[in-house]
Amino acid sequence: PADYLGCFKDYVSGKKFPYVYGTVFYTSLTIDFCLLGCADDGFEYGALMSIDHQWCLCGNEPNVDLSRTEPVSDLECDALCNGNLSQICGGRYRISLYRITLMISTVSI
């Protein structure tokens, strides 16, 4: 599970979360895919952004103090996820930001 924190402004030159999970997603990005990938790589936050393509961004600490960064209207996060058209994957220079609340780990035997 994850907590939705809101829609925030973000820019390529100063991304709040510089780690890109996977690659650029043209047709397959979903919220679950992004958050599970970020959690699997040990990150506390996952964010989705859509410009000309869709990105999954991860991190443990935002580059900017979120308490000093006002979220924008959720209406500005208006891009449908290519992998699930009922989900929102941020917007143009906007991120849909989540805090991952349950880390799933696997045990190798």
UniProtKB/TrEMBL annotation:
PROSITE patterns: WSC
Domain WSC, chain residue ranges per copy: 1-101
One Pfam family, short name: WSC
The UniProt record lists the keyword Repeat: no
Domain of life, per lineage: Eukaryota
Gene Ontology, cellular component aspect: plasma membrane
Keyword Membrane in annotation: yes
Keyword annotations from UniProtKB, A to Z: Glycoprotein, Membrane, Signal, Transmembrane, Transmembrane helix
Cellular compartments annotated: Membrane
Protein's membrane topology: Single-pass membrane protein
PANTHER family on file: KREMEN PROTEIN, PROTEIN SLG1
Name of the protein in its database record: WSC domain-containing protein
